[in-house]
Amino acid sequence: MSLDGVSLIFGGKDTEPVLAVDSINIEIPQGQFVAIVGPSGCGKTTILNMLSGLIPPTVGSVKRHGEEVTEPSRDIGYMLARSALSPWRTARKNVELGLQFHGVGRNERRNRAEELLELLHLEGFANAFPSQLSQGMRQRVAIARTLAIDPDLWLMDEPFGALDAQTRLVVQAEFISLWEKSKESTVLFVTHDLEEAVLLADRVLVMTARPGRIKSDNVIDLPRPRIIDELRFDEQFKAAEHKIWKELRSEII
Known about the structure:
By secondary structure, the chain is of the alpha/beta class. It has helices at 44-52, 91-101, 106-119, 135-148, 165-182, 194-200, 228-231, 235-252; strands at residues 2-12, 15-27, 33-37, 59-64, 67-68, 76-79, 153-157, 186-190, 203-207, 214-219.
């Protein structure tokens, strides 16, 4: 997928126009995991929304597989910082939701949901409602719901931001293990956590303060599969994180 010379302006007419992102150029090949970091308000989520077809760019073009993105697509999974589960549906029924919209039969929906819940160590909670689950468990259900439709593109907007540090490590490890097993889907992952970006991604894009521009494009040359618990203490990981922090620090200040 690509963004070619993309800028987006919010407002106008009755309000002062705001240049959210400016002259964004990104090329992402199929199957790559790309993380985006930058100061608050720099347009990270705006990029996800343009790639998803939820909002059009003011200038430039957004393409997937060579075709202009003009509307949302059913082969995109979009996961938010909060789990946003339907409180009246059980964990399994929440995972089945996207499959139901796709017209998948009841037995196939159930089997797929139970398979994903088992992979995310939630097999004993299929019939639990969101109010009966911890925040970390709800987020794992949301991951399962996103992956259930087998999306070609995963857009993830700070999906683990609401978790405590220990739970986040567990969920990160489970998530990256699932993605590495498929290695076919493309991931665009927005985060404020620089360590998380380097742990998970093949590339980390650093954005400037608003208006958001791409300041640097950093290849993360760490082997896969990645063992999150061990990688955090690896010298090569620390060097990559430090290099990107120097790029990011001046933008935050």
